[in-house]
Amino acid sequence: MAYIRRMEDRQTSQARPVPPRAGRQMLLFAGGIIGFIVLAAGVFLVSDRFAAKTAGGFPALQDYQFRLIDQRGAARTPNQFIGRPVALFFGFTYCPDVCPTTLMTLAAARDSLAKQGVDTSALQILFVTVDPARDTPEQLSQYLSLFDDDVTGLTGSREEIISVLRQFGIYAKKVDQGNGDYSFDHSAAVFLYHDNGRFKGTIVHNEPIEFIVQKLKSILS
Length: 221
Description:
There is one protein chain. The chain is α+β, with helices and mostly antiparallel strands. It has helices at residues 2-14, 21-54, 98-115, 137-144, 158-168, 209-220, and strands at residues 68-70, 75-76, 86-91, 124-129, 151-155, 172-178, 181-186, 190-193, 199-203. It folds into two domains: 2-54; 59-220, 3-Layer(aba) Sandwich (Glutaredoxin), CATH 3.40.30.10. It contains six helices and nine strands; from the N terminus they run ααβββαβαβαββββα. α3 crosses α6.
């Protein structure tokens, strides 16, 4: 009887295979990924809800007062951009990192939405210079032609640009680099507007691309 009991115990233990160590590690890894996705989605929903609550305190795009020149030499005012969603940010063509990164990130987010079947043709990306002395319409045209996306560059006189910076609350400080060269420290947020000009929220520098895609989608819906 003892022999039979030992045989039954052995058969029972053989019928309960223990997952190998590699399998347990894969399960933990998969669980970690799922947890991260859930956490990221939660963070996005909370931040998006907060942005929706605070957006009411920001002016609509058409409430700003400016008349700037685009890269083709045409005068542009805020009302001319109403009717289509807008992603607007400030920078300068001699910017070594933040500005080209922002342009490429917006283009990548737009491409991602297009692959999802979202019509992105209505999106207007506006690039307002903080360096009007160097960023003439011709310079803007040459610079923006380097990027595979439809971007409207805007420039004007020094006084006009200072007025726009103040209206939007943009920080821009000229930094002397010696030998007559200079750069700018400046705000790097992207301002998002619905097609009716209502402020939606912002995209901050180095924000995860998944968040940027969802934010652009929210103004295209």
